[in-house]
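Why run this: before we spend reagent on co-expression, it is cheaper to look at a predicted model of the complex and decide which construct boundaries make sense. The entries below are exactly what would go into the expression plan.
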Amino acid sequence: MKWIAADVEIYAKEKDYIDTALISLIPITIADGAKAAASGGEFVQLIVNEAERQLKGRVFLFPPFAYFANEQREGLVQRLGHWTRQLMEDGMKHVFYVTCDDAWKEYETQLSGRLWIVPAVPLQNMDESYKHEIVRDQTSRLLNFFISQWS
Amino acid sequence: MSDKHRVTRRQFLNYALTGVGGFMAAGTLMPMLRFAFDPILKEEAGTDMVAVADVKEITTEPKRFDFKVKVKDAWYESEEPRSAWVYKDEKGEIVALSPICKHLGCTVDWNTDKEHPNQFFCPCHYGRYTKDGTNVPGTPPQAPLDRYEYKVKDGKLYLGKAKPRGEA
Ligand code: FES
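The model came back. Tokens follow.
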């Protein structure tokens, strides 16, 4: 499911089945490291969109959790914790975060959802078919992670 | 002005021009041609048959083929990925099934549930279908998998629209 009215309508009817929230954590900066951040964000979006397409009956893809790259981590952890608690209270059983920002690794134990970090890949310099291949490979790893967490 | 700025601006222009060109081609030219030659196509965007595989690649074991179709939503025309599970049945006839689970739309896989071999399996709520796409009673899906319309031409398999069984 995506964050669009039509899917929310389905969600309202099928809550019991749609029990997994998917949130991408996207760092933003237009200073140093902007290009790497943007390209990481692009890659993450490709992967979560594809994951949603394949598992749309159970996974609800939310708008990204976006933040400035130099924001205080503690504050972010708190805000993300708030999102997660709210989603759980409202009926989600699993919350997954997908990010290209490996600074989250250090805070993993403080997060109540499960963290998935995608590798940094210079997508820009790749030809289409190779790019496709990589997104596919990364998506299928993520799908397997979901499936293993479900069972 | 520094070098950096000039490059950036040139890059921007490049993007802008590509954008406009692409937009003109897709947004203006194509529909006009289509109206001119075949007005009926207007409603049918996305239903044209697409070459998906060589017929000789198709065996009696379902195999997944990925392809792209053009779709038009409220704002723009884009390409969307599609997949099909394709095999030949006992009579040698080609069967092309949509992988979209009839429960809530996840993508089904072939033969991935060890307890129920040779079935299509949906990882979301464990929906199952037999090889011909019939939903297994007692699992969430309430209908068989859709079937793609297909045709074979010059040794290639073309797929059209996926339709509920009985209509295809
Ligand atoms: S979406 Fe396939 S079983 Fe629910």
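The pocket of FE2/S2 (inorganic) cluster is lined by residues A 17, 57; B 101, 103-106, 122, 124-125, 127, 140-141 (CB under 6 Å). Chain B touches chain A through twelve residues (CB under 8 Å). Bring this page to Monday's planning discussion.
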